[in-house]
Sequence to fold (236 residues):
Amino acid sequence: MAEIQHIQYYSNTLDRNINVEITGHWGYPILLFPSSGGQYTQNNDFGLNQSVMHFIEQGRIKLYNVETLDMLTFYDDHLQSEIKIQRYELYMRFLQTELIPYIQNQCNTERIAVGGCSFGGYHAGNTAFRFPSLVSHLFSMSGVFNIRNFTPLSDDMAIYFNCPDEFMRNEEPWKYNHMEIVLSTSDWDSCRPKNLHMSHVLNEKGIHHWYDEKKWIEHDWPLWKMAFPEYVGRYF
Fold:
């Protein structure tokens, strides 16, 4: 039985505790984000962790499921767009300068993998594309790659730098040569057009990636629980 720990990581950047669920004793670290507004235990609660449990028990991977600030940023409809993006920028700084270095140190590795489903796929993709020196693998399952619908009536440049399908058009492809990138969707997935568009952006830049389109499954947990073990098994 895999070891499961729940810790509160105090962030100086955010001036608050962030909940993290750690599953496994050893293995390559995968930082997972919940879908929109979900608790940090969501991937465990809905069976995504269980779908790769044999890899965890073999010591091939170790999962870090982290709390997001969705309900204090993009999903708080009462906030001005500028406040949303300012708060999210602090969260990204927390990941870059605090949590990912903590995981690197725990697992004695130069880079980590990131993943998530739906809006968790957005967090994973944004992290990987913004901080490629810290990330080795991206597993975005039914992800989205733009947050302008959450930040209307604002021309804050920070929004641009949190929309991967926009800023990646101006990135240098060599920064991503080491990274294994998976954009996962299905033909019935509501996010299929967003993944096709992101794949097109990467193709235009010559950035190698795997666009994986499953068949006859909708935007929900059955799709993600089928896909995630395939990706983990392929790369780890």
Remarks:
- The chain has nine helices and eight strands.
